[in-house]
Write a structure and sequence with these properties.
The protein is an alpha/beta fold. The protein has 5 domains: about 160 residues, Jelly Rolls (Sandwich); about 110 residues, Sandwich (Immunoglobulin-like); about 325 residues, Glycosidases (TIM Barrel), CATH 3.20.20.80; about 190 residues, Rossmann fold (3-Layer(aba) Sandwich), CATH 3.40.50.880; about 45 residues. The protein has 20 helices and 57 strands. Strand 33 and strand 34 form a beta hairpin. The longest helix is centred in the middle third of the chain and has 33 residues.
Length: about 1000
C-alpha cells in the first residue's frame, strides 16, 4: 500500500513537473555582428576611453572604461518572439563591480526594463535571472496599453553604477528566454472563408477545448502568409471568457485591412499562446487557407511646384504645407497622436542595403538576397494609425559587413596624426564604403531598385511620396568620420576619383603644374594631400595657392565628390521610381559647420552643385543647434534656404528641438523645463517655417517625446496655421541678401576659428535687424531679382562671372557691404590688389594678426581675438565710421552717388548697424528690437521680452492671426501687436 502510494505520488509529481516544464530560447547572438553599441564613433569617444565587444572561445567579452556618464549598454539583436517567464544570463564579471540590468524594446517601440542586480567582481561564472514579473515600462519610456508587445527587439544588457576611472569587463556566455509550457487547444471544427478582399468583413468559426489557463491576453484568429504578413481578427469573446477543460465555440470577426498583401494566408487560432491541435494533428502550420486579393492602387503623383510664390509639396496636384512626423522609433500610439492632430505625412528609417546606425534591419542579407519585411511593417504601422497617410521613408545607404569584406579597396581609409593609415571604423564596429567607389555606387543603386520595385508592387504603393536618401555621418551626407574628427578618405577608390576630377578641371599636366606651382605634378600621379598638409595653413586663416594648391583642390574636390554621390543616387532613384516620386537629401550646412574641421572636411561646400541637380526635389537639415534658447536665441536653418527656394527646391526643417518630456538636461538640444517652454519653442520654430515658406517634420530623435495633451493640441493648432498660410502670398519679401560662398571656404584653414564670428555670430544679429533677410550663395547673385542691400560675408575667391555680377549691382541706390578680404583671390592666385576692384574702395592688406574689432562712440563689435591676415579700408575718399584698436580704419563707407560701398575689417556686424545701412538702402523695416521672418503675405515676429510692438507693414493689408484665426486689422499700414515674453506671433497679410 505504501509502495503504491509512493508510485502514485511520484506519478503525480512527474505529471506536474511535465505540466510546468518550460522551453528555453537562446538570445545570444551567433556572431560578433549581432552586438551593437547603438552609438556612432563620436559618441563612443565622448563617453568612453575604450569600448569593445570581442569573441573569446565560447563567449563574448564586453570591456569598457567610461570617460563620462553613469551607465553603459550593449545591444543583442535577437528577437524575443513571445511571452516569457524569465530571461537568464550566464555571466562572469572580470572587472570592477557593477549593477546588471536588461531592457527590451517591444513591437510598438516602448522600452521595458528590470531592476538592476549587483554584480561583484568574480572569476566564476554565475547565472542571473530576471523574472517576467519584475519587468515594467522603463522610467524614460511610455507604453499606452501597458503591455509588452511581441516580438521584442533589441535586448540591451545594461551596466549601471559605473563611473570613470574603473575598468569593466563582463563576459557573456549565454542569454536565454525561459518560455513557459503552453496549454493545448484541441479543435474539432473550423469554418473560414476561402477568399477575401481588402475592407471585406470576414468571420471564422471554430469549436474546441483548452487544456489549461492561457498564458497571455491574446485571443484572436490570425491569417498569416509565408512572407510574414498578418491579419488579426479579434475573438468575439475575450480570453477570460474561454472556459478551461470544457468544450466551447469561438467566433472571430474582423475586416481585411485596406493595405493587406495579396497571397495565400494560413488560418491560426491564437488563445493565450496555446498549442493548437485539429482532429488530433498539430496545426502549427495553419488550420485552413484563405486567398486574399490585393487592393488596386492608383499612381500617386508627388511633385514640388511653385504655389503662391514658393516651392511647395503637391500630391496629385493639391498643395500641402508639408507638416510631417518622422520616427526613429516607430510607435503606433505616437503615429496616432499626430494623426489625431491632422498630420497626414510621415517618415521613418529604412534601408535598401544596410543601415549605419542600427535604425533599420539589414535588408541586403546576401549577394542576391533582400529582406524588406521591416519596410512593410513600418509602412503598415503608419497606415494602421492613419489610413489616409502618405509617407516618404528615409533610406540610409551603407554596405553590409560581407560586402566590405569582399571589397577592401572600396573602404574609407583614415590618416592618423602620426601619418599612418587604417580602415575607418564607423558605428557598430563596421567599416564604411567609400562614396567614390564605383562598385559601391553600382551595388547601392541595385539595392535601391530592389526596394523601389518591392514598394511599387505593394498594396501601399500609392501612399509613398518618395525617398529621403541618407548616408554618412549621422545620416546627413557628412563625410565618414566627420563627427569623430577623422581625416579621410585615403582609399584607392577616392584617389582614382580625385585624379578624374583633376583631369576634368585642368585637362593637361601643364595646366596642373601652373596651378600647383609644381613642375613635376602629373594628372596620372597626383596624390591626395596628407593630413599634415591639410592641417597646415601658410597664411594665418587663409591659404596661399602658391604653396597649397593641392590642399585647396582637394577641399573643393571633397565637396564635389559628396555632391556627385548625391546626384548619382538621386538620378538613379528618379529613373527607377519615376518622375512622380520625390527625392531628397540632407546637405549644404554652411550656416552650421562653422569654425570646426567639419566646415571643410564634411564635404558640404558644394551647395550650388546639389541645387543644380534636377533629380533632387527637397533638401533638409535639423534646425540649427545654435541659439536655441527662447528669449536670447533665434530659429534659423543650417543652409542657405534663399538659394534653395530660388532653385525651385523645397526645404524641410527637421524640428528636433527636445521637449521637456525628453531625457537629458534642460538646455541640451533646446530642451525646456516645462510644457509652457516647449510651446514657446514650437511657436518660434513654426513661425520661421510658415513665414519662410518651408516644410518641416517633428522628430523623436534622442527619445524625444510629445505625449502631453496640451503640447499635442498646440502642435495641431500650428499645423492648421501652416495649412491656412498656403492661401497667402508666400513669395520672398527679403530686400537684404546675406551672401555666403562655400568654395571660398576651401581657401581657409580647416576649421578656421575666425568663421565663428564671421558666420555664426552674424546670424542672430541679422535676425534682429527688423527686416526679413535671405541667405544665398555667391553664384546666385547674378540670378536673383535685385535686392536693396547685399552683405558679402566671405566673398574671398569670386570667379570672373561672379565679380561681374557684383559689379552689376552698383546702381539704383544699393548698399553693398563687404567683410574682410573680399576678392583677395583672383584667377586662382592671391592678389590683394583685387580687393579694391571688387569692393569699390581701396583696401589695405597686412599678414600680421590684429584684433579684428571696430570701435566708435555707441558702436563696438567684432572678434574676441587677433587674426591675420587683415583686410581693412584704406581709402582717402571713404568716410571712416569706426577704427580698430590699433588705430587703423575698421569700418568705412564710400558714396559713389548711385550706390554705397561699405567695408568692415571686423566680422559680426551688429543689428543696429545693419538697420542703419538698410534704411540708407531703402529697405522696409517692419519693427525694431525683434526677430522678423516674412514673405509677401506672411509675417512672424518673435521677441526676447514681452510687450507691444509697433509693426509697420510694407503696404496696407488685412491682418489675421493664423493660429487663432482672429482678424487684427483691416486695410491697416501699421499695427500695435501684443507679444508675450519670448513668444511669437504668426500673421497673414492680405
Amino acid at each position: 500500500m505504501r509502495a503504491s502510494a509512493l508510485i502514485l505520488g511520484l506519478l503525480v509529481f512527474l505529471l506536474a513537473s511535465s505540466a510546468l516544464a518550460a522551453e528555453t530560447l537562446s538570445l545570444l547572438p551567433d556572431a560578433l555582428e549581432g552586438w551593437d553599441s547603438s552609438r556612432d564613433s563620436a559618441r563612443l569617444d565622448r563617453e568612453f576611453t575604450h569600448y569593445d565587444v570581442t569573441r573569446v572561445d565560447d563567449h563574448f567579452a564586453w570591456e569598457f572604461a567610461l570617460r563620462d556618464g553613469s551607465f553603459a549598454d550593449v545591444f543583442a539583436h535577437q528577437p524575443v518572439p513571445r511571452e516569457f517567464g524569465a530571461i537568464e544570463l550566464r555571466v562572469r564579471n572580470r572587472g570592477a563591480a557593477l549593477n546588471l540590468a536588461l531592457k527590451l524594446r517591444d513591437a510598438n517601440g516602448s522600452e521595458w526594463s528590470v531592476p538592476p542586480v549587483p554584480l561583484e567582481a568574480d572569476s566564476d561564472w554565475r547565472r542571473v535571472r530576471f523574472p517576467r514579473e519584475d519587468w515594467g515600462v522603463a522610467s524614460w519610456s511610455t507604453d499606452r496599453d501597458g503591455r509588452l508587445d511581441f516580438p521584442a527587439t533589441p535586448l540591451a544588457v545594461i551596466a549601471f553604477g559605473v563611473s570613470a576611472g574603473h575598468e569593466y569587463a563582463l563576459d557573456i556566455a549565454g542569454i536565454e528566454a525561459v518560455l513557459p509550457d503552453r496549454p493545448i487547444l484541441r479543435l474539432t471544427r473550423l469554418m473560414a472563408p476561402t477568399r477575401a478582399r481588402p475592407e471585406q468583413r470576414v468571420t471564422v468559426y471554430f469549436e474546441g477545448q483548452l487544456s489549461g489557463p492561457p498564458l497571455t491576453d491574446v485571443a484572436e484568429v490570425t491569417l498569416e502568409d509565408d512572407a510574414g504578413h498578418t491579419v488579426a481578427l479579434p475573438l468575439a469573446a475575450p480570453r477570460g471568457d474561454v472556459p478551461v477543460g470544457e468544450p466551447f465555440r469561438g467566433r472571430a470577426v474582423g475586416v481585411i485591412p485596406r493595405y493587406a498583401f495579396a497571397g495565400d494566408y494560413a488560418v491560426h487560432v491564437r488563445i493565450g499562446e496555446a498549442r493548437v491541435v485539429l482532429d488530433g494533428r498539430s496545426a502549427e502550420g495553419g488550420l485552413a487557407r484563405v486567398r486574399i486579393e490585393q487592393r488596386d492602387t492608383v499612381g500617386t503623383v508627388a511633385t514640388v511646384e511653385d504655389y503662391q510664390g514658393t516651392p511647395t509639396l503637391h500630391i496629385d496636384g493639391q498643395p500641402l504645407a508639408g507638416m510631417t512626423y518622422m520616427a526613429y522609433g516607430p510607435s503606433l500610439e505616437v503615429f496616432r497622436d499626430f494623426a489625431e492632430e491632422g498630420v497626414r505625412l510621415f517618415s521613418f528609417s529604412a534601408t535598401p542595403t544596410e543601415s549605419g546606425y542600427g535604425l533599420a534591419r539589414t535588408a541586403w542579407t546576401a549577394p542576391d538576397t533582400y529582406d524588406f519585411s521591416q519596410m512593410d511593417e513600418r509602412a503598415l504601422m503608419v497606415l494602421e494609425a492613419c489610413p489616409d497617410a502618405y509617407f516618404f521613408p528615409r533610406i540610409y545607404v551603407h554596405a553590409p559587413a560581407w560586402w566590405s569584406e569582399a571589397h577592401p579597396d572600396d573602404l574609407v581609409i583614415e590618416e592618423l596624426a602620426d601619418g599612418t593609415r587604417q580602415v575607418f571604423i564607423h558605428s557598430g564596429g563596421k567599416p564604411a564604403p567609400s562614396w567614390a567607389s564605383e562598385p559601391w555606387r553600382r551595388d547601392t543603386i541595385r539595392g535601391i531598385e530592389r526596394l523601389v520595385r518591392h514598394i511599387e508592387a505593394s498594396p501601399y504603393a500609392d501612399r509613398v511620396l518618395g525617398y529621403h536618401i541618407a548616408s554618412g555621418t549621422t545620416e546627413e551626407w557628412m563625410m565618414w568620420g566627420a563627427n569623430e574628427g577623422s581625416w579621410v578618405d585615403y582609399s584607392s577608390a577616392n584617389l582614382a576619383k580625385f585624379r578624374e576630377w583633376l583631369r576634368a578641371k585642368y585637362g593637361t599636366d601643364e595646366a596642373l603644374r601652373r596651378a600647383w606651382r609644381d613642375g613635376s605634378a602629373s594628372l596620372a600621379t597626383a596624390e591626395l594631400p596628407t593630413r599634415a598638409e591639410r592641417e597646415r595653413c601658410d597664411l594665418g586663416y587663409l591659404r596661399d595657392p602658391a604653396s597649397e594648391g593641392p590642399v585647396i583642390d582637394f577641399t573643393l574636390y571633397n565637396s564635389w565628390m559628396v555632391a556627385d554621390s548625391i546626384r548619382t543616387l538621386a538620378a538613379a532613384t528618379k529613373r527607377i521610381a519615376g518622375g512622380d516620386r520625390l527625392v531628397g537629401v540632407f546637405y549644404g550646412y554652411l550656416l552650421q559647420l562653422i569654425a570646426e574641421p567639419r566646415m571643410q572636411n564634411a564635404g558640404h561646400l558644394a551647395l550650388d552643385e546639389v541645387l543644380a541637380c534636377p533629380d533632387v526635389d527637397f533638401l533638409t537639415s535639423p534646425t540649427s543647434y545654435m541659439f536655441r534658447d527662447p528669449g536670447s536665441g533665434t530659429s534659423h536653418f543650417m543652409s542657405l534656404t534663399g538659394s534653395v527656394r530660388h532653385a525651385g527646391k523645397l526645404w524641410f526643417d527637421e524640428n528636433d528641438i527636445r521637449t521637456s518630456l525628453a531625457p537629458g538636461e534642460v538646455g541640451s538640444w533646446g530642451k525646456q523645463a516645462s510644457i509652457e517652454g516647449d510651446i514657446l519653442q514650437q511657436n518660434r520654430e513654426l513661425g520661421n517655417v510658415i513665414a519662410s515658406g518651408v516644410a518641416q517634420w517633428w522628430f523623436d530623435v534622442g527619445q524625444n517625446r510629445y505625449d502631453d495633451p496640451v503640447l499635442m493640441a498646440r502642435i495641431g493648432e500650428l499645423r492648421e496655421a501652416a495649412e491656412r498660410a498656403l492661401e497667402y502670398d508666400r513669395a520672398p519679401a527679403d530686400e537684404v541678401a546675406f551672401i555666403v560662398d562655400g568654395p571660398s571656404l576651401a581657401y581657409a584653414s580647416v576649421g578656421a576659428p575666425l568663421t565663428a564670428w564671421l558666420l555664426r555670430e552674424q546670424i542672430p544679429q541679422a535676425a534682429r535687424m527688423g527686416a526679413p533677410v535671405g541667405w544665398y550663395t555667391l553664384d546666385d547673385v547674378a540670378k536673383l531679382p535685385p535686392k536693396r542691400m547685399y552683405v558679402f560675408l566671405n566673398a574671398w575667391a569670386p570667379n570672373a562671372a561672379q565679380r561681374a555680377a557684383i559689379e552689376a549691382l552698383r546702381s539704383d541706390g544699393r548698399v553693398l557691404v563687404f567683410v574682410g578680404p573680399a576678392g583677395v583671390y583672383r584667377e586662382g592666385a592671391l592678389d590683394p590688389t583685387a580687393m579694391g576692384d571688387l569692393v569699390g574702395m581701396d583696401i589695405g592688406w597686412s599678414t600680421e594678426p590684429a584684433m579684428l574689432r571696430c570701435e566708435a562712440e555707441g558702436l563696438s563689435y567684432g572678434a574676441g581675438q587677433a587674426f591675420g591676415p587683415v583686410a581693412y579700408p584704406d581709402d582717402g575718399e571713404a568716410e571712416v565710421l569706426a577704427r580698430m584698436p590699433d588705430g587703423r580704419a575698421g569700418l568705412a563707407v564710400r558714396d559713389h552717388g548711385d550706390w554705397l560701398s561699405v567695408h568692415s575689417a571686423a566680422p559680426a556686424l551688429p543689428a543696429a548697424l545693419l538697420r542703419q545701412l538698410a534704411e540708407r538702402a531703402g529697405v522696409h523695416l517692419y519693427t525694431e528690437e525683434a526677430i522678423v521672418w516674412a514673405s509677401r503675405g506672411l509675417l512672424s515676429v518673435n521677441v526676447d521680452q514681452g510687450g507691444t510692438r509697433l509693426i509697420q507693414l510694407p503696404r496696407p493689408a488685412t491682418v489675421v492671426d493664423l493660429v487663432t484665426g482672429e482678424t487684427l486689422g483691416v486695410d491697416v499700414a501699421e499695427l500695435a501687436l501684443d507679444i508675450a515674453d519670448r513668444d511669437t506671433r504668426i500673421l497673414g497679410l492680405r
